[in-house]
Amino acid sequence: MTGRPVCARCAGPVRAPGVWSNAWRCDVHGDVEPVAPAGLPTHDRLARVVHDARIPFWMPWPLPVGWLATGLTWAGDERHGARAALVACCGPGPLGGFCELVVISEEPGVGLGAHWARLPGPDPGERWATTTGAQAKVVVGGHPTALWYVDAGDDRAVYVGEALGLWLWLVVWPADAGALVHDRLTLIDLRDAPLQLQIPLGALSPRLEARAGGNSVG
Questions:
Q1: Spatial separation of the C-alpha atoms in residues 79 and 67, rounded to whole Å
Q2: What is the pTM for the complete model shown?
Q3: Are strands 186-189 and 58-60 parallel, antiparallel or unpaired?
Q4: Which helix (H) or strand (E) holds 81?
Q5: Phi-psi region for residue 89, left (φ > 0), alpha (ψ -120 to 50) or beta?
Q6: Which residues are CB-contacts of 64 (< 8 A; sequence separation ≥ 6)?
Q7: pLDDT of 106 higher than 90
Q8: Band of pLDDT at residue 2, cut at 50, 70 and 90
Q9: All structural domains of the chain with their residue ranges
Q10: Based on C-alpha coordinates, what's the Rg of the chain?
Q11: Which residues pair with 213 in a beta bridge?
């Protein structure tokens, strides 16, 4: 795993704790959770990081036909452990072509999901407070879970809900591939997955790789 930690809220550079502060700090957002450089969900990484985490690492499983896992990272530090978890995968889109999916679980206030959804605050805010019913439903850890659509622009489809008392974000590129979320998608927690689980791996997602260098490709 190469690269350096970045801000959960903007993927910008962060300063490590020092003499005057025990928190990671972003020049734009102040004290933030640092996002670790991304890597692939190999057996070693699952054993070393995921299985001891206190926050779920949700992943579609079984993966849609032809799909590959393309990245895994988390936000947090040595004081509090992981406070957000992200898993990325890609494959053929439900309407044809190529699509990518990022699944994020996080505590309120971290802002990793909002950053990927291109929202200004750390949480869904007023966009979550809707009087209409849920627009999608997925199975998360064996439980049907409602998701609400978030308007995040023309290039992606974003859905947000709650699972295990945490925010759950699904971000899909391109926008019309959001149909994937409506197609009986099932998420498992990689913390509970057996170490011998054979996850098909692809190359590291360029979106995650760019963030490892402190650049955001959205």
A1: 35
A2: 0.92
A3: antiparallel
A4: strand 81-92
A5: beta
A6: 91, 92, 180, 183
A7: yes
A8: low
A9: 37-212
A10: 16
A11: none
